[in-house]
Amino acid sequence: MNQIVKCTPKSPSPCHCLNLRRASRAVTQFYDKVLEPSGLKITQYSLLRSLERFESVSISVLAKNMNIDRTTLNRNMKPLMNAGLIAVNTGKDSRSRMVTLTEDGKASLANAMVLWGEAQTSLEKFFGKAELDGFEKLLSKLEAFV
Fold first, then answer.
1. Residue 114 clears pLDDT 80, i.e. is over it
2. Helices (H), 55-128
3. Which helix (H) or strand (E) holds 50?
4. CA separation (Å) from 53 to 57, 77, 136, 139?
């Protein structure tokens, strides 16, 4: 079990955006470290989890579902395609591309899910469930802000 053992709060910036970006970077680094044995980064894990919901999905629908732009999604998909974890094929017409999770991708995701669960549990123990629930409500408000 990966546990958070050291926490040295940084001095907050007067800029709310900078504070959120620093916090996001720290959480991303934590999840990446926990997921390291799986060979996946948290961004890749999230992409595979999103793909898991679909048998086959267009890049546009997947990008919308993940709330990221197509360019970022394409960039994040390349290492997963190269590793054989996802497949991208032509859709019903030659202009569309459909993304699917391969059997290797499903196996990789299953292994990473255990590690992801450890990261989740570690954060819940560190912050407390109630505090995380409140924080997630604030994050939802921020996400709806745009």
1. yes
2. 59-66, 70-82, 103-127
3. helix 42-52
4. 9, 16, 22, 23
Cα dihedral 67, 123, 125, 105, rounded to 10, equals 80
Q: CB 116: neighbour CB atoms within 10 A?
A: 20
Pairing of strands 57-58, 86-90: unpaired
Phi, psi of 65 (to 5 degrees): -60, -40
Position of tokens 């921020």? 142
DSSP string spanning 12-41? Answer: PPS-HHHHHHHHHHHHHHHHHHHHGGGT--
The encoded tokens of residue 15 equal: 């800029």
Over the stretch 16-48, which tens digit does the pLDDT of each residue have?
999 999 999 999 999 999 999 999 999 999 999
User: In the structure encoding, which two tokens stand for residue 107, read together?
Assistant: 């196996």
Strands (E) in 32-129, as ranges, are 57-58, 86-90, 97-101
Query: What does the pLDDT look like over 59-108, one tens digit per residue?
Result: 999 999 999 999 999 999 999 999 999 999 987 887 888 999 999 999 99
